[in-house]
Amino acid sequence: MRLIDYLRDRLPALIIGGVTYGLALLFMAAYRFSGEAVILLSLILLLGAVSAGLWDFFRKKSYYTRLIRYTEELDKKYLLAETVGKPDFLDGKITYEALRQGNASMCEHVADFRRENKDFREYIEMWVHEIKLPVASLQLMCHNNGDHKYAEQLKRIDSYIESVLYYARSGSAEKDYIIKPVSLKRTFADVAVRNREQLQELGISLSTEGLDTEVMTDGKWLAFILGQLMANSLKYGASEISVIAESFPDRTELRFRDNGVGIPESDLPYIFEKSFTGSNGRTQAKSTGMGLYIVRKLCRKLGHSISASSEQGKFTELLITFGKNDLHDVR
Amino acid sequence: MKKILLIEDEAALRDELSVLLKNAGYTPVSVTEWDSVPEQMKSSGADLILLDINLPGLNGEALLQEFRRESSTPVIMLTSRTSEIDEVLSMSYGADDFVTKPYNPTILLLRISAVLKRSAGKTSSVQTYHDAQVSTMKGSISRNGAEQILTKNEMIIFQLLLDRQGEIVTRDDLMTALWDNDEFVNDNALSVNVSRLRSKLAELGLEEAIETRKKQGYVLK
User: Fold this and answer.
1) How many Cβ atoms are within 10 Å of A158's Cβ, its own excluded?
2) Chain A residues contacting B, CB < 8 Å?
3) What backbone torsions phi and psi does residue A172 show, to the nearest 5 degrees?
4) Which chain A residues have a beta carbon less than 8 Å from that of B182?
5) How many CB atoms lie within 10 A of CB B75?
């Protein structure tokens, strides 16, 4: 808040003051005040006006400067009213009170949504558990009766169900995962077995290297992530998939590489965006643009980073980097 | 015949599980009364218990915790809850394995047989096949002083055939068992492995031990 702006804001008051002073001068002239008395009175009036003005300016200036600074610096701007405190001048108090009430109402609003969101998520979790029962029954029926063609469709249903579950999990504000040492070998074998029929039907070969290691993650989430990457490889014409893990002092890198159609360079920066299907998705296979989006969200929640590189017609490689927890290696 | 106690409230699933277990040569017994589950668990005399987590008015994890105070009968948790938290909790309460629904039936059977073997303390000891000794640890079969070393794949195949000796083991089952052990072989490789295993058995004088059933699988005689 600069003085010049403050004065400009007070222009009408200044004009009224000026006009009043002019009228006073006229009266003083009419009553034949002596020159000294006029000067003395003028000085007293001026001193009073200036000091009143300065006092008002500085108390407002100190408050508003703080307000502006907090607005810029605060990460959560809705906490502004609480942080900056109540001013000691009337118009400020009124604004502050209004701001605070607006804030409180917004907080309630957000809390309502959060509650609704949580309810919805809990319902999805419950629904997923419920629907898995008939799916499991059907799968056993298929096995017991030897109807393998139905089993394949059931697997598709199950993978769509999983995708809903993990989408709900990836968006939740709660921590519903456990980070602990997870064997890459065991997790990948589970994913591979689950996709075995399709991999063999398409004649895709799998090779692994260095998976004899543990990473700090949630095993179930990682299995879903790897399952999504494998589903993509299956969709986009791979004939070889290789999964390579490499350990560094501060991290473990997991490379999931296939020799499918690859991703055009222009699409590469967007593949983790929601609903992005890209040219492959449009021309080659049904794509929802959700798979990699969910994968990246899950990776972020777990604290892993994920990136992709590709050359069209040659390969696609997804790189997941797991941080190493210092405490973990103490054992 | 090993007896398996099934604690699963979803009737359709329970019936199919029973069929699966019966076909695999086990004797399944189902719990259908839900007010005395802990007593039934203790008095069943089962060799293994398959326990669901969500039960009517009961929690499988709590049941397991209570059961473990008195018994060491192996328990495999079966659940549609796919969270690591449930798995960690179950294992810490003393579950022997944790399988999520929907499960691959072959994998479920493999897990059951692995847990049964582990509880019988048979994993490291030497098994016998007719008059031959099979050592899983060494990965070898010996007979009359002669020894054949099997590769990891051959051992997995032989082990599965031996576990279900006299029954048909499908190529699908063999393939699942191999993949479950990080051996991602294809159809050809499986045939090659089986024929190598055959010739190693023949070297030991066990000719025609593995019989091929057209379009069904293999039988170890």
Assistant:
1) 19
2) 128-130, 132-141, 143-144, 154, 158, 162, 165, 176-178, 180, 185, 188-189, 192-194, 196, 199-200, 203, 205-208, 211, 218-221
3) -80, 150
4) 185, 188-189, 192, 208, 211
5) 27
The residue with tokens 């299995």 is: A223
> Pairing between strand A240-247 and A205-209?
parallel
ipTM beyond 0.90?
no
Contact (Cβ atoms closer than 8 angstroms) between residue B193 and residue B117: no
Question: Are the Cβ atoms of B13 and A136 closer than 8 angstroms?
Answer: yes
The pLDDT tens digits of the residues spanning A156-171 come to: 899 899 999 999 888 8
| DSSP per position, A71-132 | HHH-SSGGGHHHHH---SSHHHHHHHHHHHHHHHHHHHHHHHHHHHHHHHHHHHHHHHHHHH
DSSP A158-199: HHHHHHHHHHHHHH-SS-----EEEEHHHHHHHHHHHTHHHH
Q: Which of B9, B23, B84 to mutate to test the interface with A (most CBs of A within 10 A)?
A: B84
Start-to-end CA span in chain B (Å)? 19
Q: Do A200 and B187 touch (CB under 8 A)?
A: yes
Give tens-digit pLDDT for B59-73: 899 999 999 998 989
Rg (CA), chain A: 35
Query: Which residues does B206 contact at the CB level (< 8 Å), separation at least 6?
Result: B129, B130, B132, B143
pLDDT (average), residues A190-217: 92
CA B212 to chain centre: 22
CB contact under 8 A, A189 and B19: no
pLDDT digits (tens, 9 = 90+) for A277-308: 887 777 766 778 899 999 999 999 999 999 99
Q: How far apart are the first and last CA of chain A?
A: 59
User: Can you give the length of chain B in residues?
Assistant: 221
| B16·A137 Cβ contact <8 A | yes
Q: In chain B, which residues have their Cβ closer than 8 Å to the Cβ of A189?
A: 179-182
> How far is the C-alpha of B186 from the C-alpha of B154, rounded, in Å?
14
